[in-house]
Amino acid sequence: MKKDGLEELFRKLENDFDFEEPRAGHQERFLDKLNQSKGVVTLSHKRSWWKPLSIAASIALVCVLGWQLVDPNPTIKEQVVKIAPEVSETEFYFASLIEEQVQLLKKEDAPETAKLVADTLAQLEKLEGDYRALEQELVNGGNSKLLLNAMITNFQTRIDLLQEVLDNIETIKNLKQPDDANFTI
Known about the structure:
single chain
């Protein structure tokens, strides 16, 4: 009999049931009210977006790094080495000589020679840009023998420029030093 009473109650209320979802944060508000009625103080435990955001950033970083490793587009350097393998050895040799002389040049940066050093470094940047253009032209299918010769000439020009400037700086330093033999007391 009780079973029939429950079934009858549910049949009467069948169209009056609420099937809508509660608003966002309903559970937190309910728990807060429940705890307040019991006299319990709770600390706010708001959901932090830093953790999901950092996970997403990590995944994006791994994807970018992975793409860089399997990137089908080789760099200009890699393409030049494929065209002319001897270029990498030559470039390494000349680049180390140039870097050594540039370091010597930067050590000689005195007030008397500051403009000369700055101008020389600017000229080296232009020559480096020219070298990159020659590399690009080589990759684009230019005359490889002619371009390789021009690339070597570019390196030699940079070395000659640095050597000449270092000699000029040495001359300037020698002119600035007083010659004790010419002074009389």
